Amino acid sequence: MKIPVLILIGPTAIGKTALSLRIASTFGCEIISMDSMQVYRYMDIGTAKASKEEQALIRHHLIDIVDPDVQYNAARFVRDAMAAVHDIHSRGKIPLLTGGTGLYLSSLNNRLFDTVQIPHGVRSQLQQRLEEEGREVLFQELTACDPESAARIHPNDSQRLLRGLELYAVTGIPWSEHIRRQQMRPRKPLLPTQLQIGLRCDRFLLYQRIQQRTEIMMQAPFQQEVEELLARGYDSELPSMQSLGYRHMIRHIQGAWSLDAACQSLITDTRRYAKRQLTWFRANPDIHWFDRNHPEAIFPLIKQFLHDNFPTAQALAPRSHA
C-alpha cells in the first residue's frame, strides 16, 4: 500500500505531543496514537493524552476506544491503525502516527503479531496463579525461562508477564526468541511508504523533564481520576491500572505510600521505562533522529518526503510552523 505515512517516536516526556500538533497543523495530518495506554477511556491525566482542545484542533485516532478492563494488544493495534490510515487517506489527509510503544511500531513494520494460539486453559490457569501467588513469583519464573523478556518488561506489567509465560508454556520457546525469529524473516511492512522521525535529547535533560512532568501530574486532579476509576469498579490489579502512574497513585490512595514516596517511585520507574524505550528504538535503523531542542530541522525532511510521495498543493505549501 503506497499511502505515505509520517511516524514520530521517542521516549516518554520528550515532547512528542507538542511537536506532533505542529507537524499535523503544518502538513494537513491527522494523528494516530501509537500509545498502549491512551486507548483507554477515563484514563487521561496519567496517560498524558492530548487535551480536548488539542483534539478539537487536530483529529486524533485510537484514543478512548476501549474500557480499562479490556486487554488491548499489538495485533488489535495493527488492525485499528490500518483502518485509521485508510480512513485518513480517503479524505486526502496524511496519517501521522506518534507514540512511544516500540512493540506497536515493530508490529506494523515486521508483522510481529500474536500468532501463537493460546488454549483457554493455559491462560486461565496462569491468571489464577497470578491472583493467588502474586506477580513476584511469576516474574521469577519468567526470569528463569526468558531472562531477555524479563529484562525489558516491568515486574508490574501483568499483561506482558502473562504473555511471556503462556508462550513458553505452549511452545517451549521464549517470547524473545519468537520475536527474534519473526524479525529475521523478510520484512513486509504494512506501510512501505513511511518516514520515521525520532526525538532525542541529553539524558540529564530527559530525566529533568520526567521529574517535572511527574511532579505536575501527581496532584489532586490525578488522584481524583484514579479514585473515579476505582469507584467505577475497575480493579486495581488490572493491567491498565498497574501501568505507570496509576499503580503509584493507587498505593498512595490505599495508604501504603505517602504522596512524596509515590512521586519518587514514579520518577524512578519512568526513567527506567524511558531507557527501555530508547534501547528498543536504537535497534531500528530506519529512524531519522533529531534533537528535541531543534525540531525546525525536521520540517524540510518531511516536506521533501511528501513532495516525493504525496505531491499535492496542501503538502507542498506548508503553513508556517514558527
Strands, helices and their partners?
Elements: E1 5-9, H1 16-27, E2 29-33, H2 52-57, E3 60-61, H3 74-90, E4 94-99, H4 102-110, H5 120-133, H6 135-145, H7 147-152, H8 158-171, H9 175-184, E5 194-200, H10 203-217, H11 220-231, H12 246-253, H13 259-282, E6 287-291, H14 298-309, H15 313-316
Parallel strand pairs: 1-4, 1-5, 2-3, 2-4, 5-6
What can you tell me about this protein's structure?
By secondary structure, the protein is an alpha/beta fold. It folds into 2 domains: 5-111 and 188-217 and 277-316, 3-Layer(aba) Sandwich (Rossmann fold), CATH 3.40.50; 120-183, Histone, subunit A (Orthogonal Bundle), CATH 1.10.20.140. Helix content is 54%, strand content 9%. It is built from 15 helices and 6 strands. The protein has a 6-stranded parallel sheet, with helices on both faces. Helix 2 (52-57) links the parallel strand 2 (29-33) and strand 3 (60-61). The radius of gyration is 20 Å and the shape is globular.
Q: Which key features would you list for this structure?
A:
322 residues; alpha/beta; Rossmann fold; Histone, subunit A; 2 domains; 15 helices; 54% helix
Poorly predicted parts:
313-317
Order of strands in the sheet with most strands = 3-2-4-1-5-6
Secondary structure: helix percent = 40-55%
Considering the protein shown, what is the CATH homologous superfamily of the largest domain? P-loop containing nucleotide triphosphate hydrolases
The number of helical elements comes to 15
CATH 2nd-level architecture of the largest domain: 3-Layer(aba) Sandwich
Would you report the number of β strands?
6
Beta-strand content estimate: 5-15%
What's the mean pLDDT score? 90
Which sequence of SSEs, written as H and E, runs from N to C?
EHEHEHEHHHHHHEHHHHEHH
Cα Rg: 20 Å
CATH topology of the largest domain: Rossmann fold
Q: Quickly give the structural class.
A: alpha/beta
Distance between the termini: 33 Å
**Tell me about the biggest sheet?**
6 strands, parallel
CATH class of the largest domain: Alpha Beta
How many domains? The number is 2
